[in-house]
Fold this protein.
Amino acid sequence: MILNLRGTCGSGKSFAGFYLINNYPAREIYEDGWNKTKTKHIGYELPGNLFVLGRYYEGITTGGVDGFPAPKVFDAIARYARIGHVFVESLFLSSSVAPWEPLIKEFGTDLTIAFLDTPVERCIESTYARKGFTTQLKEDAIRQHHKGLGRLKDRLVQRVLDGELFNIAIVPRERSVESCLRLLHDGGWKEKK
């Protein structure tokens, strides 16, 4: 089962990832081949074969797999989903569709693309809070990305309505953790603390 949580900057994507690795025993996963010289920390293994891909640690201003090479990310998603369950999020994954097509074909209804419903002004406020109010944000870019995600969500919903086999979910920001846990449980993850 794959759960891909999507949203723009400040929408709360990483909050769910942080929750998972801070509330369940998490073993860090390192792999060779992600960079030229050393192994790379690519995620966490939680009980019940849940793999949370990305980096989540104190002081990081972006979570998930942002900054990871996209082809390696999609390879890792597929590899770990074949042996368990995957939670993955990042800003760059939020707008992509084409790289997901092989995963949609292979995993079908074992793939859920979940969109956070965070209002754009809340996204901007959260991004300022995370980066510090002294940072000048490109608020128009965040607004454009938010609109684009709305259009993308509508297109993906239409594909599901037209009979394609994958899942779409809308996740309320105020209940993002509970919603993600429910989606993971519905997908077969047996939670063990």
Notes: The chain has one domain: 2-186. Residues 2-186 form a domain with the Rossmann fold fold (CATH 3.40.50).
